[in-house]
Amino acid sequence: MTGQFTGRLVTRDDPDFEDAVLGRVFNGRRPSRRPDAVLLAETEQDIVAGVRLAAERGWTVSVRSGGHAWAVWSVRDGGLLIDLGGYRELSYDEATQVVSATPSVKGGEELTPYLEERGRFFNGGHCPSVGIGGFLLQGGQGWNQRGWGWAAESVVAVDVVTAEGELVRCDATQNADLYWAARGSGPSFPGVVTRFHLATRPLFGGLAHTVQGYRNEDFTDVMTWLYEATHRIPDNVEIVVVGMTLRTPEGESLGPGFIVTGLAFADDLPAAQDSLAIFRESPALSRAVFVKDAAPSSLAEQRVEQERSNPEHAQYICDNIWAEGDPAEIVERIRPLFTELPTPNAFTIWMSNLPTRALPDMAFSLATGAYVATYCCYDDPAEEDANRAWLEQAMANAQPVTAGQYLGDSDFTRRQLRFMADDNFAKLQEIIRARDPEGRFARYLAKDPATLNRNHWEL
Ligand SMILES: Cc1cc2nc3c(=O)[nH]c(=O)nc-3n(C[C@H](O)[C@H](O)[C@H](O)COP(=O)(O)OP(=O)(O)OC[C@H]3O[C@@H](n4cnc5c(N)ncnc54)[C@H](O)[C@@H]3O)c2cc1C
Fold first, then answer.
1. Integer Cα distance of 93 and 193 in angstroms
2. What whole-number distance in Å separates Cα of residue 276 and Cα of residue 261?
3. Which of 13, 38, 292, 373 has its CA 20 to 30 A from that of 298?
4. Which atom of ligand 1 lies at the shortest distance from residue 409's CA?
5. Average pLDDT score over residue span 59-64
6. CATH 3.30.465.10 spans which residues of the chain?
7. Ligand 1 mean position to 66 CA, how many Å?
8. Terminal CA-CA length for the chain
């Protein structure tokens, strides 16, 4: 069953090989790695045929859904890259309220409007163009993850092509090992997911947004207050702090600073606005550079803002931590990540996950009360070294309050941290050994695969 594709197999001799390898990669900072071939899959059967062809040729298979992995995990040296970009299908079952979507479907641009028309919602990723494939496999910090949980918690089943080239359904009752792994293994899943089946929630009726812009001098006071206040803010509110260049609505720079934001999802606008009342207690409110107080908003408006902060094909270096410990120490240790950003386009987020709650049994298993991630965005490759040096130093400063990191914003070829509970990591390795003994599917792309899931300073 070689070469029977609806899509196309692109090899190194083809003139569009480079485009097939890199054209759909979000990060403009490109790797030098190259596969032997790229399968531009268009159907589920193409994926089955691709995995079988790889077995015949002794190729390792890597997969691309949305192409947003910052570290470009889909592009490996040698083997077959199966690109799912041309395989896009969506369907909704009224009876079960489950939406089924292929992995390259974009969470914000495609899945959200499709569900909106049906009065439903799925908390996909913040950036509208992120593919649901990589996002869900690594856990998925979607809209209001603080209240609604990890997006992977809403996965009710996945369809998977296994190492033998068989298409199987995986859920709580059949192929439960793959269902468990599909919710958190990220780029070491022993198969190709061809479809996700997702529980949806009713579409919210009101969205309200508070944004307070501050100068960096107020960082310690505001963050110390927020660490306490976040426990009292209702769980329909997503709470994010961003260290950044403050700007007017027209985009004019107001200099460095940070914003405190609350985005409330509720049945109607007044209820959403009421949920944001506690933000008015900020100790530095009178010194704020600007304040938007519980203003009506929409996901369309939020999507525009996300796209503005993350321009496609710019070059990015990013890193992240799960922050843990005494709030005063955390605030002190993460402060440089917010207040000493190296360029006007760099930014750092602090996303509240408080109060924390127990996670269901799935591969994803490491998260703390606050997520901190920095994105250094630049256009000139000559800026890479300076950005990297600054980021490494600022992340090292945060080590005493670092429990581990989130796969979504990580690059193990640069820095390896814990990303899974030890028992879950051991169980995942067993599943991989049983399901893919020959190593058909690419594993984590790491500087040192032998020391994965360890904080490098604890080795
Ligand atoms: C601008 C931007 C904003 C982001 N915002 C968020 C956010 O709000 N929340 C969040 O959690 N993350 C966010 N991320 C991180 C993002 O979720 C991850 O990079 C994720 O891996 C992207 O998924 P993808 O399918 O687009 O990536 P891809 O690069 O296509 O896939 C990443 C890897 O996942 C594996 N994989 C993907 N699809 C499959 C499949 N079908 N079967 C088997 N393995 C597969 C492969 O190993 C692949 O290399 C953001 C990233 C960017 C660039």
1. 20
2. 10
3. 373
4. 15
5. 98
6. 90-202
7. 6
8. 47
Q: 102: CA distance to ligand 1 center in Å?
A: 14
Closest by Cα among 10, 199, 4, 82 to 440:
82
Say if ligand 1 is within 6 A of residue 64 CB.
Answer: yes
User: Could you tell me the distance, in angstroms and rounded to a whole number, from the CA of residue 63 to the centre of ligand 1?
Assistant: 11
The CB of 165 under 6 Å from ligand 1? The reply is: no
pLDDT for position 212: 98
Asked whether the predicted pLDDT for residue 2 surpasses 50, the reply is: no
Is the shortest distance between the CB of 190 and ligand 1 below 6 Å?
no
Q: Tell me which CATH code domain 90-202 carries.
A: 3.30.465.10
pLDDT digit string, tens, across residues 19-57: 999 999 999 999 999 999 999 999 999 999 999 999 999
Helix (H, G, I), strand (E, B) or coil at 172: coil
Whether 394 shows a pLDDT value over 90: the answer reads yes
Which residue intervals of the chain bear CATH 3.40.462.20? 206-409
Distance from Cα 419 to the centre of ligand 1, integer Å: 15
Nearest partner of 315 among 18, 65, 72, 62, judged by Cα: 72
What would the pLDDT profile of 330-363 be if each residue is shown by its tens digit?
A: 999 999 999 999 999 999 999 999 999 999 999 9
- Which residue has the CA at smallest separation from atom 10 of ligand 1? 141
Given a contact cutoff of 8 angstroms between Cβ atoms, the answer to whether 191 and 163 are in contact is yes
Q: How many Cβ atoms from other residues are within 10 Å of residue 55's Cβ?
A: 15
**The token pair that represents 49 in the structure block:** 């045929």
How many angstroms separate the alpha carbon of residue 31 from the centre of ligand 1?
16
Report the residue count for the chain. Answer: 459
193 lines ligand 1 (CB under 6 A): yes
67 lines ligand 1 (CB under 6 A): yes
pLDDT at 433 over 50: yes
- Asked whether the bond before 113 is cis by omega within 30 degrees of 0, the reply is no
Q: Mean pLDDT of all residues in the chain? A: 96
Ligand 1, residue 187: give the atom nearest the CA: 47
Q: Where are the beta strands (DSSP E) in 48-188?
A: 61-64, 80-83, 90-93, 98-101, 120-121, 155-161, 167-170
Q: Look at residue 89 and tell me whether its pLDDT is greater than 60.
A: yes
Going across the sheet that includes 37-40, the strands are: 8-11, 37-40, 80-83, 61-64
Centre of ligand 1 from the C-alpha of residue 206, in Å: 29
Per-residue pLDDT, 3: 55
CATH class of 206-409: alpha beta
- Taking the C-alpha atoms of residue 271 and residue 249, their distance in angstroms, rounded to an integer, is 26
Tokens (6 digits) for 234: 């209702």
pLDDT tier at 1 (50, 70, 90 boundaries)?
very low
* Interval 106-156: pLDDT, tens: 999 999 999 999 999 999 988 888 999 999 999 999 999 999 999 999 999
Whether residue 140 has its Cβ less than 6 Å from ligand 1: yes
